[in-house]
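Reopening closed ticket. The problem is back. First fold of the pair:
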Amino acid sequence: MDFTQSPFLVIWETTQACDLACVHCRASAQPLRHPAELTTHEGFKLLAEAADMGTPVFILSGGDPLKRPDLLDLVREGKRLGLRMGTIPAATPALTAALVRQLKEAGLDQMALSLDYPRPELHDRFRGVDGAFERTLAAAGWAHECSLPLQINTTLWAESAAYLAEMAELVARLEAVFWEVFFLVPVGRGEMLDGIEARRCEDLFGALYEVQKRARFVLKVTEAPHYRRYVAQREAQKRPAPPVQDSGSPDGKVTMPEILRRSEGPGHTIGLAPHGVNSGKGFVFVSHLGEVYPSGFLPVSAGNARAQSLAEIYRKSPLMRALRDPDALGGRCGQCEYRGICGGSRSRAYALTGDYLATDPWCAYQPNRGHFEASPVISGA
């Protein structure tokens, strides 16, 4: 794919309404839907524009997408257009066995459930509702009953990082086909949470790398693109070879490791992108009001889907074009030999520095020197 023309993934925040009270919520969700949300017709138009761009994967997100009475219609329309459709329902009483079966019958390709801790009391506290853990496990069982591929999403921050190995074991027991591990970006309610010390990220990368090598499921690390740098370094140690030109690398010195480009999960389920995805680079986010952002965690608008086509915004917006230019990056990210496959979290750079082209504060790597600097704990505040 050419990420200057087409995103690998489009996420539409169908609504910000949700009955959970998650302590890290990007959207600071509340129970009621906004009256100016994109309509069903506007949603169909957005799906068609994504399909016309050649985007393969489209995710209906929230809030809680189950708050939308047209959710099944949106899934059916996306499938009619040839998109691979996913959604991320919240673990509330609205999520039932019957609803999971209806999603499968509508053509949903993959259902994601959030599990941030492997223990009920910790997860329920994080999600703000008692019983969320047990309902999530029940929903995982309902997905298996109707052969709907299951994805698990996990948020990592200073407290939850200690449970990473235990979470990996739980994901395997749940027979998920995909595990998305999200490194916290302090936006919304997440501004109050403690971040992960930059050197600690390297330890977590090591644990994730070992999981990725042996796991049956696909592992995706989100908002920590320096994990790709870590894997490239580890893979190069195993098989020393001359540098290979990579389409995403500006200097031709680094290639995207094969382990990070797994195209399919178990049973031909959704896999990983062919190149390194980042905000505005292979990825685009559309808000419930139609604002088009490089990421839901980088709330700088590039345009509105009600006024312009998604293709025009993604391909021509100065914001999106700057984010796709490795040479536009500042600080250590701009000097790094891995900037083509990594580029740092643009969302975190913006959240913590106010500059979406600045150094990712959660990376300690010193470019072209092969060593790391000591760094303090970076809080979410």
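Second fold of the pair, where the issue appears:
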Amino acid sequence: MEQIKTGIASYGLSGQVFHAPFISLHPQFDLAAIAERSKDLARVRYPHARIVRRFDDLLAMDDLELIIVNTPDDTHCEYARRALEAGKHVVVEKPFTNTTAEGEMLIALAEKQGKMLCAYQNRRWDADFLTVKEVLASGRIGRPVEFESVFSRYRSHIQPDTWKEQTGGMTYNLGSHLIDQSLALFGIPEYVYADIAVMRDGGVVDDYFIIHLLGSSKAPDVHITLKAGYLMCEPEPRFVLHGTEGSYVKYGVDMQEALLRQGALPDLSDWGMEPENEWGWLHTGKGGRAKYPSRRGHYIEFYEAVYQRLRHGVPIETDAREVLPVIRVIEAAKESSRSRTVVRL
């Protein structure tokens, strides 16, 4: 079957770490083109790919079937729109869009064009998140009653020369992951209450949030807390899950991003496997307290899902329509923090 000729819209951190390695590794994809404005890093790593300087150059390539929009957040809507209008399938880096209205417009356009539109919510394939899903499905903690998900970061200074310190903010950046994972587990909440703040000296965009979700559609009695911040020198648990029969607690984060940043390629047989000292703890009234083996994580499964969608018509779980509620929750969280009220979706 013909490979999916793919172009990447940017070769910054996202392109280098989260997209190009997995596209080039998957046998059903051809990493045909990469847009890199001024440097030649992509040419060294992927000499077979065509290196272009402008997004327009990608759009002009008739043989490209899929474009990855992994540019700064504020450009996602415009670039995705233009790619769809050019007749391409589109993957949009998280956050999908800045507003629900933008997302609805893109979804309508994709349907009109008959093209796939999905969001790169890669942390659905984190080892720890897959393990949380397994623990829930096993029923070993009984009926879930409380769920906490935290990204602990420590960077007390404002990083210079990066758009992430000027636009978007942590709620859109890391919040889109935590909210997406929560919605995948428990469904869309009925109520949102949030505190969003700028805590670092000289900060421009939010670098802290705590979001409470109540009345989720799949589990209305579960109390959900999502949190992230840049002034968390001592990490909190990544996941805490309490139920009527027990608890699961997991420290540490999925290892894939750190390995990719170090230059490792995701073609190792044990890729995404956490060592035993990184496993979480399962504590139940019947079974006592013991280490619980982590599932294997692998971001290539996202691109396998894209392949199955484009070549076999299999629905993709990060379809734009399915991910759009993440943006609705972010908007509600922003409004809740401004008004100091509970916002109903």
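Update: turned out to be a display glitch only; the data is intact. The mean pLDDT is 96. Residues 320-339 form the longest helix (20 residues). Please close again.
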